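Ticket #4471: structure export looks truncated?
Reporter: QA, pipeline team
Priority: medium

Steps to reproduce: submit the single chain below to the structure queue and open the exported record.
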Amino acid sequence: MSKVRICTFKNNLFLVGLIFSMNASIHVSNSVAAMLDKTLTYCFEASPAGFDANQAKTESDFTASAMTLYDRLLEFERGGTTLEPGLAESWDISKDGKVYTFHLRRGVKFHSTPWFKPTRDFNAEDVLFTFERMRNPDMPFRKAYPAEFTSFHYSGLDKIISRIEALDEGHTVRFTLNTVHAPFLFKLAAPARAILSAEYAAKLLKEGHPSDINWKPVGTGPFIFEQYVKDATIRFKGNPEYWKPNEVQLSKLIFDITPDAAVRIQKLRANECQVVTSPRLTDIPALERDPDFHVLSQTSFNMSYLVYNTTHKPLGDVRVRRALDMAIDKQAIIDQVYEKRAQIAVAPMSPLQWSYDKTLKDAPRNLKQTKALLTQAGYPNGFEISLWTPPQRSYNPNPRLMAEIIQSDWKKIGVKTKIVSYEWAEYVRRALNGEHDALLIGVVINIPDPGDWLRLLSCTQIDSSFNASRWCNPSFDDLSQRAAQALDIAERIRLYTQAQKIFKQEQPFTPIAYVTDYQVINKHVTGFKINPLGPTIFSGVGLSTPVQVWNK
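Actual output as written to the record:
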C-alpha cells in the first residue's frame, strides 16, 4: 500500500507549531495522520441487499460487493472489455470446446477479519464451493441458507456446466460442459461469479450462522469489509495482502449512501465525497467548467427500453405493438429526459456490442399509419392501458418525464395511459408477477457478448423479471442458441443478426436510449476509470494528496 511522506506538506514544521500553539485537543500525530490518511468517500445511490456477490442483482450491489471485496477466475481489464487472468493464471480448452482447465494462482490470501481468520490460501476447494452452491440446490450450505442466484441462472450456467473437478492437489480446476458454449469464459468474468471461501462457509455452517456469508463477507479482493450502517455508510479498508499490491492505493474506502442526486453533488462540492455516481444531467455543464472536478463519461453496455406485456390484451397483437412503438417521439425523450446526452436506441443491444445490426431502422413516426394499424387490429377508437414507471435509475434520470412524454404521444392515436409508480423492490416484484401492461425498465449487461442481450427475450426467461414482455418466439430462441454454440465468429454474427431482425418485426419492446454514463471525481482522485460493463471499480484508484475527511 502506498505511503505518503510528511514532506508532501509544505511548511509542515510551521503547521505542527501552529497546532501546538492553538492548544488543540487532538494530538499532533493524530492530526497529521488524519491528513495523510488516503481515505476516499464515494457517494452512490442505493443501499445494498447484502455483500454476497453471488446473490447480487443490481449494479449498486455489484459495486458494494463483487468488485470491491472479491475476485473471479477471470477478469475484464479495468475500464475495458478484454479478458485477463484473475484467480486463474492460465487456462486450456479441449479441442471439442467442452472442457476448460484452469490453473489457479498460488499464494492468494482470503481476508482476515474479526469474524474469520483463514488458515490456508485460496485453492480449488473454494472454486468448487462457489459454483456448486450456485448450481446445486441440494448442496448442504445452500440447503442451510437458501438463496437465489439470479445472475447465474440468467446466464444459463446452471444448465451449461456438467461437472467441476479439483485436480493437481487443489491448484487446478476442470469444468466440463454439456455442450459447446462460446461465451463461457466471458460468463466466468461476470461480477456475480466472485469466488467465496469454502473454509469460511464451513465455519458458518458449523456455528449455525450460514446467512452471515451475506452480511459478514470474506473475499480475496482489494478491500476488506469493516462495517455497514444501514442506509447510511459502508466502510472498507485497503487489503494489505492483496495479490496485486499496486491496485490498492487507498487506506480507507467509504460508501456514503445518498439516494438524492442533488445531495450527492452538494456533498461533492463540500468535499464530503470525492466520487459521485449518476449526477443529474442538468448539473453536468457547471461541473465541467469547475476546475476542482473532472467529469468522466463513457458509452456503456446499457439500454433503456419500454416493455409490452404480450400476455395482456391488446398487447399480444404485433400490430398494436408496432403502432405504439411508431407513435413514440424518441428524439423528444433524448432531448428532454437525457438533455441530449444519450443516443436513440433501435436494436435490442448496445451499438458497442459486436454483432449489433446497423441496418435496423425505426419506422418513421406517422400518426396516420399508426391509427390504421390500430384499426386493423380492431381498435379504431384506441384503448386504455397502464404505463409503469420506476424510481430514478442510472439508465433513466427522469422516468416520470419519460412516461409523460409517451403518454402524450399515445394520446394522439387514441390510447389512454394511466401512469403507475412503485418503489423499486415492489416495482420488480409486481413486474415478476406480470401485473403490468407497459413497463419502463433498463438493463446494464455485465459481459460483452450478444447472447446476454438476447436472453432478455428468451422463452426460458418468461417466469423471471428479465423477460418482462413474456414474449416467446421459438425461431428467435433457436437462432440465439445456435449462435452461442458456434465457435466461428462470422457464423455467430450471422445468426445474431437474423435474431435481431425477428425482434424488430415483432417489437416485444421498444428500445428508447443507449445511455452515456457519467461519474464526477475530485481533481485529486487518480486512476479512476468508468467501467463500461456497469459496476464502479476502486482497485487502482488513489489520491494525489491526502483528503481531510471529517466526521467519518
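Status: closed, not a bug. The export was complete when the record was re-opened. Leaving a note from the reviewer for reference: The radius of gyration is 25 Å.
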